[in-house]
Amino acid sequence: VRDITTRLQVEESLRDLGQRMRLMIESARDAVITIDVSSHIVDWNSAATEMFGWSRDEAIGSELTELIVPTQHRVSHHNGLKRFLAHGVHGILNASIETTALTRDGSEFDIELSVWPVKSGDEYTFTSFIRNITDRKAAQRAMALSETRYRLVVENANDGIIVTQDGFIRFANPRAYE
After folding, report:
1. What element of type H or E holds 8?
2. Which of 16, 38, 119, 176 could bridge to 172 as Cys pair (CB 3.0-4.6 Å)?
3. Nearest to 32 by CA among 47, 51, 22, 52
4. Per-residue b/e over 93-111, b at no fewer than 16 CB within 10 Å?
5. Helices (H), 28-161
């Protein structure tokens, strides 16, 4: 009786843990997508629906590359998956990379992607957190453009411009050198 009671308590704890994990994934602001070894989607949270435009029902069972991976990245995705399964060699697993993804309407946008393998028995699944970084990338491009414009103005100014810090010259434009 004691063994059955203990077993029932463990099973209840596991169910609770599973429910907490599902709620955590569902409430995540990042898209959370899990695929199997053949690149078919086995889990898709509501943030993924919002980000990519495919409902959970439409996504589950679909091939990841057909839904969200841009054409130019599909071969790399499949080759990386094959390489990991054959040799355990991974390129992007357990790291964070910047790349692009597709929305339902075919628009490509910037993302930050983190993927990790999960082994259960003899089978692997691959879970990813995906964050839309379109605004961040646009801000970086705007900053780079602003710096380029500023540098052009300063380097082509008719007056000499010298920037000092702690008693050292840190920058001088060509006119200052003249």
Report:
1. helix 2-27
2. 176
3. 47
4. beeeeeebbbeeeeeeebb
5. 46-52, 56-59, 64-67, 71-87, 134-155
Q: How far apart are CA 90 and CA 95, in angstroms?
A: 10
pLDDT of amino acid 125 = 94
The pLDDT tens digits for 77-123 are 999 999 898 888 777 888 899 999 999 999 999 999 999 999 888 89
Per-residue pLDDT at 11:
76
- C-alpha to C-alpha distance for 141 and 87, rounded to whole angstroms: 38
Q: Please give the average per-residue pLDDT across 62-73, as a whole number.
A: 96
Geometric angle at alpha carbon 54, from 48 and 58, rounded to 5°: 115
Instruction: Give CA 159 to chain center in angstroms.
Output: 46
Give the residue, 174 or 12, on which the prediction is more confident. 174
Cα-trace Rg, the chain: 25
Q: What b/e string do you get for 33-47 counting C-beta neighbours within 10 Å, with b at 16 or more? A: bbbbeebebebbbeb
**pLDDT per residue as tens digits for the range 158-169:** 999 999 999 999
Distance CA 87, CA 78 (A): 14
